[in-house]
Amino acid sequence: MFSETIELRGHIIDSLILPKVLDQILTHGANFKITEINIGRKRADQSFARIEVSAETTDALDDLILRLRQHGAEVTKREDALLASAPADGVFPRDFYVTTNQQTFVRFDGKEIEVQPAMMDSAIAVDRKRGAARAVKFFDVCKGDEIVVGHQGVRVVPVQRATSRTDVFQFINTIIDADEPKSAIIRELAGELQRARRAKGRIAVVVGPAIVRTDAGQHLVRLIESRYIDRLFAGNSFAAYDVERALFGTSLGISPDLAFSRGGRENLVRAVNTIREAGGIATAVQKKILTSGIMHACVRHNVDIVLTGSIRGEGSIPGVTTDAIEAQKVMREKLTDVTHALLLATLQHSLAVASMLAPTVKTVCVDIDPSAVERAVEHQPLQSIGLVTDVEPFLRELADCVTGSKL
Amino acid sequence: MRELLLCPPDYYGIEYEINPWMSRARGAETALAQKQWHQLHATLSALDCKVHLIAPQQGLPDMVFTANAGLTVGRKFIPSNFRHKERAGEQPFFAKWMQQCGYEASWLPENLYFEGEGDALFSGDVLFCGYKFRSDIQSHRTVADMLGCLAISVELIDPRFYHLDTCFCPLPDGGAFWFPMAFDDYGQRAIREHIIDLIDVSPEEATHFSCNAVILGRDIVLPEGAPQLVTKLEHRGYRCHALPMSEFIKAGGACKCLVMFMPQRESVA
């Protein structure tokens, strides 16, 4: 998206110049955002509007601006961004600009450069020689790096709600509470996943241990076997619970097949030890030690497993990234081409992933805790659906819909 | 008593082409043009008004169209900034003449095109302004600032009706007659929102420059060739004086283009 800011002054309301300009922007396939408007109070008072116009190409934008100028639009002069040097390694200068996850442009030497990647809660480092701007975390910044300070010369292009086609995300775009019906939405989601698979989209699932504990793993396995999952993000404990269930039929010692049973952590620790002994999940599958469960399905169907560890972990399964900074880097890299994300029954991991997603990624968050759903969904305000429900019936119904069969 | 500015057509002729009506090959008949102008002068002089004449200048054939000299409100005169270089030479003569008559000149920035009363007509306290072919919309807000009035900018879309006064004529009772197709949809809506009693002029009568009329109280001086409009106006109690204007229409002008009000309006509330 390329954009310019225009200003309209005069009797633009009575003359219908403001609606005319806005209509022209839309009919030319461009978008607008009114950033400031001041309407005259008395009859002879003139009005003022500042409008950010964005179009797909520079040519389309130039052509449109030329037309709008005929109706009195004046293009505002843009200032370059202000830069300051990082005072030390890992420290941003004061007043550094904090990014969002929206597409962002920064202006320097009279040109607008897109900040890559679109990453929230970062600073923007500018490389004048290469004409590049990148979003940087604390660990990326070195003393003397030029960092954008203040808001001048920074332009954010939020994802616009589509005007031409309305899919389930843009249509619903809300949270479905525990006491509301969900079947129709789950059917729509199934349709969206089918479309995504046909369009060679990348579907990521972020999963928490509750999936294993509620015995919803079998439904996730059906989705994996039907090739609806490309990448799986989870913590160490999810993998440990899944392996325990596969090896011993229990989760935290509890058998889901028994109405009343006593739990314990013993099986979990033994399960982790078995995988460590085998040399990792993939080798355990190859050696036919691990023959069922979600991890097994992922290995068998080439789903990329991204495991990052937690402090509470029991000593990690081989292949889990335990260094928090390193884990962020790995997750970010594995999320770059994701088009759809299912955040299922895990608050911390969902929030971590949601904060790294590009604003165009369509997101579904399912959790039994309404506040967890709210927090995850607010990262993607235009492209997300939240469902407050137990994850087991959700996954069961979704798997039924996409596979066309019932368990 | 209304005062009007006219310019004798001593040097009038079609020497260049700056609108779709003008054709140097066809030209205007000088003697007939003289006759038509004198008929207009005589008709106006017989009505309740005082006619002033500015001396025509050689090499400025369109100076006869005094409506484009500027816009006068009270004792303030806003000289035009002509879009075409062929007419730009008229500006100093008109400005000097008006200043000599005691009017105070309020100059627009040089980069804003504005063609005076041709593109700026009051209906009550509201100044309707045409833009695109000759005047820039940016000039309207400066004019509105200078006068402290509401200016409604309307886009003209038919090059044959390149000035507002060729397709829109406000009446003293608050109504107006107009040729709607000369405006874009937004302009039509803006006019309809501010003027309730609108008389639509047919396309055929509009091409006879029927909207290019001089209104003096209940008297309307307009080009001949608009019997339907005349009937409607007479029905509303106006006296119509239809005059032959063929030789001026060849240059894209008629009765109103040949006249500037001094002032168009005494004051703006």
List the helices and strands and how they pair.
The complex is a heterodimer of chains A (407) and B (269).
Chain A: E1 2-10, H1 17-27, E2 31-38, E3 47-55, H2 58-70, E4 74-75, E5 82-85, E6 103-108, E7 111-116, E8 123-127, E9 132-136, E10 146-149, E11 154-157, H3 168-172, E12 175-176, H4 183-198, E13 203-207, H5 210-213, H6 217-225, E14 231-235, H7 236-248, H8 266-278, H9 281-286, H10 294-300, E15 304-308, H11 324-335, E16 340-344, H12 347-354, E17 362-367, H13 370-377, E18 384-388, H14 391-403
Parallel strand pairs in A: 7-9, 12-18, 13-14, 13-16, 14-15, 16-17, 17-18
Antiparallel strand pairs in A: 1-3, 1-4, 2-3, 5-10, 6-7, 6-11, 8-9
Helix pairs in contact in A: 4-14, 6-14, 7-8, 12-13
Chain B: E1 2-6, H1 30-46, E2 49-53, E3 70-73, E4 76-79, H2 85-88, H3 90-100, E5 104-105, E6 120-123, E7 126-131, H4 137-147, E8 150-155, E9 168-170, E10 176-178, H5 185-194, E11 198-200, H6 203-206, E12 214-216, E13 219-223, H7 227-235, E14 239-243, H8 246-249, E15 260-261
Parallel strand pairs in B: 1-2, 4-5, 7-8, 10-11, 13-14
Antiparallel strand pairs in B: 1-15, 3-4, 6-7, 9-10, 12-13
Concise account of the structure shown:
Chain A has 407 residues and is an alpha/beta fold. Chain A has 14 helices and 18 strands. In chain A, helix 12 links the parallel strand 16 and strand 17.
User: Level of helix content of chain B?
Assistant: 25-40%
**What structural class results from the helix and strand content of chain A?**
alpha/beta
CATH-scheme architecture of the largest domain in chain A: 3-Layer(aba) Sandwich
**The CATH C-level class name of chain B:** Alpha Beta
Structural domain count of chain A: 3
What is the total number of structural domains of chain B? 1
Describe the strand arrangement of the main beta sheet of chain A, using strand numbers: 12-18-17-16-13-14-15
Q: How would you sum up the major sheet of chain A?
A: 7 strands, parallel
Number of helices of chain B: 8
> If you consult CATH, what is the topology of the largest domain in chain A?
Rossmann fold
Helix-and-strand structural type of chain B: alpha/beta
Q: Assign the CATH class of the largest domain in chain A.
A: Alpha Beta
Unreliable runs of chain B: none
Helices and strands of chain B, in order, run as EHEEEHHEEEHEEEHEHEEHEHE
- Please mark out the parts of chain A with pLDDT under 50 across 5 or more consecutive residues, or reply none: none
What shape does the CA trace of chain B take?
A: globular
Write down the overall mean pLDDT of chain A: 89
**CATH architectural label of chain B:** 5-stranded Propeller
State which percent range the strand residues of chain B make up. Answer: 15-25%
Major sheet size, sense and barrel closure of chain B: 3 strands, mixed
